[in-house]
Design brief:
By secondary structure, the chain is of the alpha/beta class. The protein is built from ten helices and nine strands. The longest helix has 23 residues. The protein is globular and about 45 Å long.
């Protein structure tokens, strides 16, 4: 994967600030949050807020702008490129794209508009404050625990989370909430698979914006596919409990996540990502 140049400057860097306004959950609370997120479709921040007695969390302000370190610059450049892609795609439809309020980098735990964010939950998007939250230690977990290393796999994660922001703008998130339910056909699964497809759409257009400072080749796409497969519900469930329970799916199977990511990458068309209008997920 090739990347360089200036980023989007939309980073809010809270690294090294500590968990301001965040109460302790303990190991049990973190486990419950993980179970709620991966298996039951519960927003992790909702879980942790309940565990803390639903007390509001204080949202600290980080340093805004472009980080100077390599890891921070990567997130800045990739997220800026993703925003540039969606700006161009929205413009083609006569619409105006509004980028996320920030891409927040933090350590371990932080206050969010959705409650307390914990690194153990993995990257997530909060629709309340319209920010993406990312603890960069997840990159190590992605490689060591899930076997999906490389910058392209990391870029897939960033594009997927910004895809959730796109869904907030288009109303897909609200549609998913109305559908409700749990399991393989739920609104949650349809939302996640669409975000995977949107990540693929970004791949198709990445080199066409931001003065061509980001580009991916077929090998990078394979890295993205491996990342999508690594976080499929069936794969996660099999590792955690030794069996697959489709009724508890929240994100889709590994096969589904790879297929929708590939569809976005091959078509480059957000309209091809209509997971809400198809019977075959």
């Amino acid at each position: 994967m090739r990347w360089g140049g200036d980023g989007g400057g939309n980073i809010e860097d809270r690294r090294g600030m500590g968990a301001v306004g965040v109460g302790g959950l303990g190991a049990g609370g973190v486990i419950l949050a993980l179970v709620g997120y991966f298996f039951f479709g519960i927003d992790p921040s909702t879980t942790t807020s309940v565990l803390q007695g639903a007390a509001p969390t204080q949202q600290q302000d980080g340093v805004r702008g472009a980080p100077s370190d390599q890891a921070g610059r990567f997130v800045d450049v990739v997220s800026g490129n993703v925003d540039d892609v969606w700006t161009a795609l929205f413009r083609q439809e006569g619409e105006r794209y509004e980028r996320p309020a920030a891409i927040v980098l933090y350590d371990q735990a932080t206050g969010t508009g959705c409650g307390t964010g914990q690194a153990a939950m993995g990257p997530f998007y909060c629709p309340t404050d319209r920010k993406v939250y990312l603890d960069l230690s997840f990159w190590q977990e992605l490689e060591q625990k899930f076997g999906a290393g490389g910058e392209a796999a990391r870029a897939y994660v960033i594009a997927h989370e910004i895809g959730h922001h796109v869904q907030t703008l288009t109303g897909a998130s609200a549609k998913a909430r109305r559908l409700g339910a749990k399991g393989a056909e739920s609104g949650s699964v349809r939302l996640e698979l669409q975000a995977d497809c949107y990540a693929g759409v970004w791949v198709a257009h990445a080199a066409q914006v931001s003065n061509g400072q980001v580009a991916l080749d077929p090998r990078d796409i394979e890295d993205g596919l491996r990342a999508a497969a690594a976080v499929g519900d069936d794969t996660l469930q099999r590792k955690a409990q030794g069996q697959v329970v489709p009724d508890a799916f929240t994100h889709g199977s590994s096969e589904q996540r790879m297929r929708w990511f590939r569809k976005g990458a091959e078509t480059g068309d957000p309209n091809s990502c209509d997971t809400f209008g198809t019977d075959r997920l």
